[in-house]
Structures are given as C-alpha cells and as structure tokens.
Amino acid sequence: MTTPSAPTARPPVAITGLGCLGAAGVGLAAQTTALRSGACGLHRRDDPRLPLAATLPIGRVDADLPRLPGRTAALAVVAGAEALAGAGLHAGNRADIAVVIGSCTAGMPESERDFLDGGDADAVWPSYRRQQTHCLTAMVARHLGCGGLRSAHSVACASAAAALIEATELVRSGRAERVLAIGADALCRLTMAGFHSLHLVDPAGCRPFAGNRAGMSLGEGAAALVVESAASVGRRGARPLAWLAGWGLRADAYHITSPDPAGTQLDRAIADALSDAGVAASSIGYVSAHGTGTVDNDACEAVVIARRFGAVPMASCKRTYGHTLGAAAAIEAVACCLALAGQEIWPSAGAADAVDAGNGHVLAGPEIVRRARPARLDAVLSTTLAFGGVNAALVFTPGDGPSPGEAP
Amino acid sequence: MKLTRFARIVGDDAVCPAWVPPVQRRRLDPLARLATAVVDLAVPGGLGLNPDTGVIVSTSYGAVESTHRFLVGMAQFGDAAASPTPFTTSVHSSCAGALGELLGLHGPSTTISQGGLGTLSALRWADLVLTAGRAPAVLMVIGDRHNDWTRRIVATLSGSKWPIGDGAVALLAEPDHAPAPGRRLDWSGLSGALTLDGGGLRTDDESLLVTAATGSRRLIAPDLIGSWWPCCLLAGMDSAAWRDGPDCTLREGEGGQVLAARIGQLNSD
C-alpha cells in the first residue's frame, strides 16, 4: 500500500441553487441581512419542548413549516425547495436529482418526545423508525419530487460537509449530474442536555474566537445546495452561483470529543482541499470557520488557520445561528457562496462583544472580521470540526451568476 | 476497487479484542465493541493498515444502547443532570471515531444511515474515496447492534415478521492495483452466478445462508426468517464462502431505490 499524495486539481462542481433557514430567518435575503450585520440570533425561550432553553440561549427557527412527521424534515424541505427553485429545477423536472442529506439528530425531536412522555413501545415505534437518517432523506426526496439516488450521512457536526463531499464526488464520477445536498437539524432535548452535561454551553450565548469565550450555543436550521456538473449547467443554460472546487476530510484519531490541539489533521484537510481545488493558500480571501465558541475548538482552528494563512480575514456565524450541528457545514457553505456572489466578507458575531466587555482578547493570528466589508474574493474556505475527530474543509470559488442573496 | 479483507460476526456476544484498552472496552457502545471485534477478525490487530486509511461505518440505528441510557438518565434525573458518558458515545459517528482513534487511522471518515441500502452505499462511498485518491484503503463496518429496548419496540410492530438481530461485516477496500488478493467490485456487471438480495437478511438457519452464498442459486433474503440486520447483506457469507464462493451479484432495495453491484471471485476479474 502506498500513502496517497496530495490530490491534484480536479474539475470543480457548480453550485446552481441555494436555500437556507435558521435563527436568522427564512430565505437567502434574510441570511444576507443577518450575516452582513453580524446579528445575534440567540435567545432564551420558555419552550416546554426544550426545558433547558429557559436558561441557555438557542437559535430557533420561528417560521411556519410544512406539516411533515419530523421537524428536521420540515426544515430540510424548506431549504431544499428554495435551492431547487433558485436553480430553475421546478417540479416535474426533478426525476433524476439525487438527494444527499447530512443530519445529526434526524428524527430525534419526535422520538425523544414519545419516549420521554412515557409512551409504550407501540407509541414509540413509528417515531423511532423515522429517527433513522435515511428515513429523513426518503421523506424529503419524496416531498420535493427528487427521484435520483439517496444518501444520508450522520457525522455529528460534519454531517453536511460529508453530504457535500459525496455530492461532489457523485457528480465528478458521473454517477449523478445534479445532487441536492442538504444539511438539516432541529433542536432537541437530547443534544441540549448532552452538551450541557459536558459543560460546553455558554449561558451568555457563544462568543466565537473571543478571549473570554465559554462555550457554544445550540441552534437549528437547514441549508441546501444544488450541486451540478458543468455539462449539465451548460445544457440547461444555468449560471453557477459559485463552484465547489475542492474538499478535504481527515480524522484526528485523537479523542472522541476533543480536537487535537495541534490541529495536524485539520491542517491536512485544508491542504487536501486546496490541492483538490488547485488553489494556492494565498488566494484564500476569507475563512468561514467552524468557530463554535468552545475553548478547544476555537484555539485549534485559530492556530491552524494562522499557521497556513497568516492574517486572513476569518469569521464564525455561530452566534447568528447557534451551532446547528448536522446543518452547520451547509449553512456555512451557503454563507460562503453568498460572500463570493456579493464579493463581501461577513463579521464574526460575538467577537466584538467580548472585546467591548473589556475582559478578553481575540486570539492572535487570523483577522477576526468585525464589520462586513467589500472584498475581492477569488476563493473562500469553510472549515468544520466534529465529534469523533473529523475535520472537513471545503474550498469555494466565484461563479458568474447574479448574487442570490439580495432582497429584491 | 477490490475487497481484500472480509469478516462477519453474527449475534450480540462480540468481545472486544485485546488491543482495545480496558477503559475503552468499558466505555464503548456495544455497536463499537462489535465493530472492533469484527475488524479484528478481518484485519487482526489492525496490523498493516496504512494510517491514511479511511473509515466508513454503515449503521441504521447507530449507538442505541448509549442513546437509550442517556434518555433514561434524562427521564430519571432531568435534562440538566444527565450523565455525559452515554451522550458522547450516543453520537451516530462515535463508532467510526472510536475505530479511527483505536487504530490510528486519519483518512476520510464518515458514518451513513442507509437502511436496506447500507452495504452497497458503503461500497459506493469507498469507491468514491479511492477513485478520488484520498486514501490507500477504506475500512468498512456495516452492521447494527440493538438492545432490549429496540427489540421490544420492533417486536410490538403489529404482524411483524421482521424480528431484529445483531451483526456486522468488516471489509477492506483497496484500489485495483493494490497487491493484496481480493474480490473485485463492478458496478455495471450484474451477471453474478449468485444473487444476494438485501434490504434485510432474515434467517434462523445460518447454514442456509452459507449454502446459498457458496452455491449457485438465488438467495432472496426476505424468504428467510429469524433475524433482521438492516445493513448486513454480506453477513450471509462466512469466511469460506468469501474465499471460495462464486462471483456474486449484490442487490439491495428500499423505498423504491435499488442498488446493485457484482463482486468477482477472489483474485479474479
């Protein structure tokens, strides 16, 4: 066996449709407004469905959702429908569209409700069965009329990154011409209780990359990207909003919950993504970081990004959305595509708050963006770290379509 | 690509191999224990695995024991007082994470939930990763490990003929040019002497599955009764069938989706 060398540049895949909803609102225009302002989308809630939300701020979707058996599925359908419509792939023209979903909790909100409400096995079974991620994919594909192959990844916070990677390789390999890649997760009691039990939730709301950061905040949402071959784009006369040019996916093999502080495999994932894209590190004009606000995650990311890119502008949108777990990498991919389309970089919500409080400092190295500003962006990078030691990196380059994120 | 290592475990009595540190043995979810055990049969001690090897775990239900334990803790002590230990191992990808950590593997790692398409979906991912040149090999574990809670839930399904079972298959996928002998995977050739139809294996007679896998007749899993492993299409083979069996068409279906591929005889095209 030989160790693979760094991947050589391979054809990018087009992103022809985007959809997103989260605490920032529903639709691309709402995302652009929130990302541009660095709005905080975290709030405490009196929600009997989520008891811990009374004391721990969350990023919740406040919108009427389609009536589906699962909240995660409903979120995914809204994002998917927006992306397909934006790509010009209307109902009746979706028979060959593949659907690849990344989700961490899938049907858990309904399954845990039935279990914790003391339901007997008869009552729990239907929701338990739907809890499986492939059932979520099937439900979403059916609802959207997408008849191509289906796949479901559940890789904790990197779920959507894995979905985007499979979508890319399905297109590159010719197994599919168009793939709807979705990341989706609804808030649920299990994840709130779980991260709280690990003392990883900041009662004040997450403050990514701030010196006094004290943990993450959870959120819910979904984002969808239509990933398409260049040939299909040409035949349809579609215009790419952006290109997904390269990916990296590496495992720490270090600890089940903590990232390797040296960030060796995160750095390798970034190197792989750059090589795959044929993009030099110096061409990266903006890094959309995972930036959860936990001490370990942000330190690891800052060290790695600084080492490879120096003072590159970097931001996390976790204070805007909360950490949406399985959806996060897709939401951040949409943010990258919007940044490229508008040639604008987004601020890192929360970092400025901490500095203003006078009791912290921003990690040295990358420039933590404080205010939105125009920028010439030839390429942007999105990074993701997940439980199980998974590190993902995605490189996006500009398309030639109109910016989809501006309000008409 | 070709499949160069194979092992299966049927049942729920898998024992962690000795190379798993005692603390990990205690903490691992039973699915991860099963995974380490079946990997140890396929690649003893994990010896010889390149550190850049990728990992994929295909499991529909995931770490049900840990998930159940955590939910029980929430029910007993409240959301604010649940124990973190089962939470960390309840994550769907915790099994793949544990395999990577224990074996020191840094290649692309993912976990999929594909129900009755679990085997061929894992093979497809491995093929994509190898074709993209991202790993010299991909270690696959395909399986599910239930507990009394899930067994009870499924057993209540009215009129069910699908009692569930436990089991896992481990495979190592390598590029065609790798020197190790293997069974080559062909996505277009569906003319195997034997067809394994998946979407759930059910049998109370192991010998029937083995006979079918080594013989030349069609095996239709739903004709068999006994246990249901959503992901273990290849659990019908034992090591002898793997080594000596004929070329074989694998076919899985669920929800209107059908995947199929052919694996050649060992060392053959």
Strand and helix layout:
The complex is a heterodimer of chains A (408) and B (269).
Chain A: E1 13-22, E2 25-26, H1 28-37, H2 71-86, E3 98-102, H3 108-116, H4 121-131, H5 133-144, E4 150-153, H6 159-172, E5 178-185, H7 189-197, E6 221-228, H8 230-236, E7 242-251, H9 264-277, E8 284-288, H10 295-309, E9 313-315, H11 318-321, H12 328-342, E10 344-345, H13 351-357, E11 367-368, E12 373-374, E13 379-386, E14 390-398
Parallel strand pairs in A: 3-4, 3-5, 8-9, 8-13, 9-11
Antiparallel strand pairs in A: 1-2, 1-6, 1-7, 5-6, 7-14, 10-12, 13-14
Helix pairs in contact in A: 2-5, 3-4
Chain B: E1 2-10, H1 22-27, H2 30-42, E2 54-58, H3 64-77, H4 84-90, H5 94-103, E3 109-112, H6 118-131, E4 138-144, H7 148-155, E5 167-174, E6 183-186, E7 194-197, H8 206-214, E8 219-220, H9 239-244, E9 248-254, E10 257-263
Parallel strand pairs in B: 2-3, 2-4, 7-8, 7-9
Antiparallel strand pairs in B: 1-5, 1-6, 4-5, 6-10, 9-10
Could you explain the architecture of this structure?
The complex is a heterodimer of chains A (408) and B (269). Chain A is an alpha/beta fold and 408 residues long. Chain A is 35% helix and 19% strand. In chain A, the strands form two sheets. In chain A, strands 1, 2, 3, 4, 5, 6, 7, 8, 9, 11, 13 and 14 form a twelve-stranded mixed sheet that branches. Chain B contains nine helices and ten strands. A ten-stranded mixed sheet of chain B has the order 3-2-4-5-1-6-10-9-7-8, with helices on both faces. In chain B, helix 2 crosses helix 5 (94-103) and helix 3 (64-77) packs antiparallel against helix 4. Chain B is globular, with a radius of gyration of 18 Å. The model of chain B is unreliable at 199-228 (pLDDT under 50).
